[in-house]
From TrEMBL:
HAMAP family registered for this protein in UniProt: MsrA, MsrB
One Gene Ontology molecular-function label: peptide-methionine (S)-S-oxide reductase activity
UniProt keyword Oxidoreductase present: yes
Name this polypeptide is given: Multifunctional fusion protein
Protein family membership: Belongs to the MsrA Met sulfoxide reductase family.
Native source species: Heliomicrobium gestii
Gene: msrB
Domain (MsrB) ranges: 218-340
GO biological process: protein repair; response to oxidative stress
Transmembrane segments: none
Ranges annotated as biased composition (Basic and acidic residues): 213-223
């Protein structure tokens, strides 16, 4: 994201706050911001890759570098915004992202920034917003390496995936809990993101009709989906067994909702149940799956739907293998398969580690 004019005074600020996707949006639309980019800093490896950084092999942090006009937006204001995006008491990562690359840090570019950052940290400690000690270090800025292009402005390129990631990570709930009564003012939901109250309304109870959080444009869906994909996901149809795309797929990767892109299942939990449809012992994230009673066709079954896309996926049965005993019987037409080698370029790079280290 860049918006600059040649005559503007420019300064840089560098912050690490966990996943860099989530650290762009708080800053980018503010007056005085010229550019916000995602990248890696604080380590020893030159020009590291995302895979190397996530594997904790380089010592780098995921970070954002902000170019700003200090006459319009003072550095102190950037610090105020930064503190309200993170858990500064967590030394091992941020929210559900664990590991050294997801640690927090402020990287100062000059002595004035260092002094301002130290003063801001002391002020935060005095406010008593957090019960635990603040452990975010203040470090001298070093080389900053741009992240791969698909990471830049990720929230604009993949808005649904980004929204689901933020929601599932626990970041927004943490921010709302710690800052809603702060002297610095109530934190507002991100632009384009639902409020906490809206999210609560959109979380259906088990065995109740599902209300998805994604607004549907059915004319667009008819253009994007094949006829069978539309009928399965929108009209609860069932594709024929043994004559569907993934029933016998043995490649490693993850399966996402064909409509919303939310991650649903992994090849690590896929098994051959003999039914002719893709079968899984459990979902990737239980919160991405909603259940409701289905009494159609003279049977009592438990339907499963994607939580945010509200796509009909299939049904879950209790005749699966031990130890869980569940069988998620899913229509291929409701799924898109992403091979493990394509996870990074498709924007699901955080799932690559499933296939490197096991679950």
């Amino acid at each position: 994201m860049e918006k600059s004019t040649p005559e503007e005074k420019q300064e840089r600020a560098t912050f690490a706050g966990g996943c860099f996707w989530c650290m762009v949006t708080p800053f980018e639309e503010m007056d005085g911001i010229i550019r916000v980019v995602s990248g890696y800093t604080g380590g020893k490896t030159e020009n590291p890759t995302y895979e190397e950084v996530c594997a904790d092999r380089t010592g780098h942090y995921e970070a954002v570098q902000i170019t700003f006009n200090p006459d319009v937006l003072p550095y102190k204001k950037l610090l105020d915004i930064y503190w309200q995006q993170i858990d500064p008491t967590d030394p091992g990562g941020q929210f559900h992202d664990r590991g050294s690359s997801y640690r927090t840090a402020i990287f100062f570019h000059n002595e004035a920034q260092r002094e301002t950052a130290e003063a801001s940290k002391r002020a935060l400690e005095r406010e008593g917003v957090f019960a635990k000690p603040i452990v975010t270090p203040i470090l001298p800025a070093g080389p900053f390496y741009l992240a791969e292009e698909y990471h830049q402005d990720y929230h604009k390129k993949n808005p649904i995936r980004y929204g689901l990631y933020r929601l599932g990570s626990g970041r927004d709930a943490f921010i709302a809990h710690h800052w809603k009564k702060s002297v610095r003012g109530k934190v507002q939901p991100e632009k384009g993101q639902p409020s906490k109250d809206q999210l609560a309304k959109d979380q259906p109870a088990k065995s109740q009709p599902v209300k998805g959080t994604m607004e549907k444009d059915h004319s667009d869906l008819r253009q994007r989906l094949t006829p069978i994909q539309y009928e399965v996901t929108q009209n609860n149809a069932t594709e024929p067994p043994f004559r569907n795309e993934f029933w016998d797929n043995k490649r490693e990767g993850i399966y996402v909702d064909i409509v919303s892109g939310e991650p649903l299942f992994s090849s690590l939990e896929k098994f051959d149940s003999g039914c002719g449809w893709p079968s899984f012992t459990q979902p990737l994230h239980e919160e991405n799956i909603a259940e409701r009673n289905d009494s159609s066709h003279g049977m009592i079954r438990t339907e499963v739907r994607s939580r945010n896309g509200d796509s009909h996926l299939g049904h879950v049965f209790d005749d699966g293998p031990a130890p869980g005993g569940l069988r998620y019987c899913i229509n291929s037409a409701a799924l898109r398969f992403i091979p493990k080698e394509d996870l990074e370029k498709e924007g699901y790079g955080d799932y690559r580690r499933l296939f490197e280290r096991g679950r």
